[in-house]
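Good morning C.,

I know you're traveling, so I'll keep this short. The sequence:
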Amino acid sequence: MMKEDLVEIEFTLNGSTIKLKVKPNETLLDVLRHRLKLTGAKKGCDTGECGACTVLMDGKPVNSCLILAPKANGKDVLTIEGLGSRDTLHPLQEALINSNAVQCGFCIPGIIMSAKALLDEDPNPTREDVQEAISGNLCRCTGYVPIIEAILEASKKNSEKK
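The tokens, ready to paste straight into the viewer:
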């Protein structure tokens, strides 16, 4: 590929401005994982079916395996690495750990990002709202019950802080 075949993009990633040149057919997931070394979003199915690659783009959950990197130009992208820190976990991360809702962990970053989008939009969701919000995220380990309970717990704690 010749240098002029690259597309220059600029977007906000986890609060920082990113400028880079990408191939027109390069996915956002590949840019995040391989070029920016943010490996929280996982390549599961690579067809948008499993949700392991879910990130937030302008506050909405998207399958980053289906988004071409040039589409991120001018957007605000948030990955699991942009939530909390080692010292201060995001309430969703804390709730999932405290509820023993994490088993293998492969799906959890995508689930957390989908749940964050829900809680940002509706701080007091119903069980059905949570089920709908994470319906695009497949988990083969937990059966979803502890995940849903943890998300509901995080929403309660979030409401108590206000």
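Safe travels,
E.
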